[in-house]
């Protein structure tokens, strides 16, 4: 596959609760300034609202036909940049910015309980650590059952796993927006390379 043709959408979230400035959107805007080399990057700010997510995520897939969508969210508890392995369907009780939560408390009625990303987050973590970026990166299996997890599951369901989710700590705790932007750049590039390799293997299997 020609590297110049890869398209990625990266989303961050708007303000909510005590996060009047959402570190995820700050980090995504820093990534936008840095770019992804030959790869095409589109960024989008996502409101912290379940119903908006349900219409916005499919529209991003339809509009851009990306190789990958990476969603970024803030976690007040995070001290590292955290790669989420999977999204979960049930347990959405927290009210969003419109004081709404789904009656079913799930993302997709009848969908699987959990969907894993096709990207091996442990590999991404190791590769990024090896670049000496100076940012701690870890892997998690629980994206928190709020808008982050809801968005991730919705995207994984639509893309059959071709999505990723990254949690970032609040700005200055310990990283600046610029440092987080650089970390996102490194992580997204590793994710794209891993996807390319996986697809290369699939094509080889078809040939034999």
TrEMBL record:
CDD domains, per the entry: Peptidase_C15
Keyword terms: Cytoplasm, Hydrolase, Protease, Thiol protease
GO biological process terms on file: proteolysis
InterPro entries assigned: Peptidase_C15, Peptidase_C15-like, Peptidase_C15-like_sf, PGPEP1_Cys_AS, PGPEP1_Glu_AS
Active site location: 84, 148
Catalysed reactions, semicolon-separated: Release of an N-terminal pyroglutamyl group from a polypeptide, the second amino acid generally not being Pro
Quaternary structure and partners: Monomer.
Protein's name according to its UniProt entry: Pyroglutamyl-peptidase I
């Amino acid at each position: 596959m020609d590297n110049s043709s890869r398209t990625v959408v990266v989303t961050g979230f708007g303000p909510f609760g005590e996060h009047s400035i959402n570190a995820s959107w700050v980090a995504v805007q820093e990534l936008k300034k840095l770019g992804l080399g030959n790869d095409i990057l589109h960024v989008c700010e996502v409101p912290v609202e379940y119903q908006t997510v349900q219409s916005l995520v499919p529209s991003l897939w339809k509009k851009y036909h990306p190789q990958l969508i990476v969603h970024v969210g803030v976690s007040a508890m995070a001290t590292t940049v955290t790669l989420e392995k999977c999204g979960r369907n049930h347990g959405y009780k927290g009210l969003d910015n419109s004081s709404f939560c789904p009656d079913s408390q799930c993302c997709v009625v009848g969908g699987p309980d959990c969907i894993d990303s096709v990207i091996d987050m442990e590999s991404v973590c190791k590769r990024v650590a090896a670049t000496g970026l100076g940012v701690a990166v870890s892997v998690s299996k629980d994206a928190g059952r709020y808008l982050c997890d809801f968005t991730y599951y919705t995207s994984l369901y639509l893309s059959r796993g071709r999505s990723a989710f990254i949690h970032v700590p609040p700005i200055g705790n310990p990283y600046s927006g610029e440092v987080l932007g650089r970390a996102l750049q490194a992580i997204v590039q590793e994710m794209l390379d891993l996807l390319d390799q996986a697809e290369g293997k699939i094509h080889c299997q078809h040939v034999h």
